[in-house]
Amino acid sequence: YTPATLVAGRLVIGAGLLLLAVIASGQRLPSSRRQWGLILVMALMGNVLPFSLIAWGQQTVPSGMAGILMAVMPLVVLVLARRFAGDRITAGRAVGLVVGFGGVVVLLGPTVAGSSMGSPAGQLAILGAAVCYGINVMLARLLEDTPAVVAAASVMLVANAFVVPA
Q1: Which residues of 10-37 are buried (b: 16+ CB within 10 A; e: fewer)?
Q2: What is the separation, in whole angstroms, between the first and last Cα of the chain?
Q3: What does the pLDDT average to over 27-51?
Q4: CA distances from 34 to 7, 40, 43, 47 (A)
Q5: Is 29:155 a contact under the CB 8 Å cutoff?
Q6: In what helix (H) or strand (E) does residue 165 lie, and over which residues does it extend?
Q7: Which of 38, 64, 117, 149 could, after both became Cys, cross-link 108 (CB 3.0–4.6 A)?
Q8: Neighbouring residues of 32: CB distance < 8 A, sequence distance ≥ 6
Q9: pTM for the complete prediction?
Q10: What is the residue-averaged pLDDT of the chain?
């Protein structure tokens, strides 16, 4: 499958299942323009761009290396939360970040050691996906008043509108 087909397939399945969950729970999709505007940005940053970047990048980057590169996402969230939400970077958070990233390297490092690291462009694409996910975490905070299943279904629907035609 091409990266675009893979991404579209994931999004169609996800949207279908989430819409069924919304219907089964008796909830409705959002009605405000503000919510839909935020959902549009979240669809791009949390689904369309990272799914596409990962699918494209993994054509040349081994899975173990991709896992290590994706492990920078919590660092992105930490920096963005500090900058835009005023969250404090405590010693515990910093230690947790270092231990978590170290754990990923320990678990995935042996699969990467001695193998090709992949192309620099592929690595940058995967790092870009990690940054997109970090940004999306911060955006999700703005939808706290929307039930999670409704927000997720809405995001998937909008992401489908971008990816399926492509």
Answers
A1: bbeebbeebbeebeeeeeeebeeeebee
A2: 14
A3: 94
A4: 27, 10, 14, 19
A5: no
A6: none
A7: 64
A8: none
A9: 0.82
A10: 89
Closest CA to 73 of 108, 46, 48, 35: 46
Residue with tokens 């992401």: 159
Residues 65 and 138: their CA atoms lie apart, in Å, by 25
DSSP letter at 62?
A: -
Torsion, Cα 108 128 123 91, to 10 degrees, reads -40
The helix or strand, by DSSP H or E, that contains position 101, with its residue range, turns out to be: helix 91-112
Q: How many CB atoms lie within 10 A of CB 116?
A: 10
Q: What is the CA radius of gyration of the chain?
A: 17
Average pLDDT over residues 148-164: 94
CA pair distance 66, 115, nearest whole angstrom: 13
Render pLDDT for 50-78 as a digit per residue (tens, 0 to 9).
Answer: 998 998 999 999 888 888 889 889 888 88
CA atoms within 13 A on the CB side of 60: 12
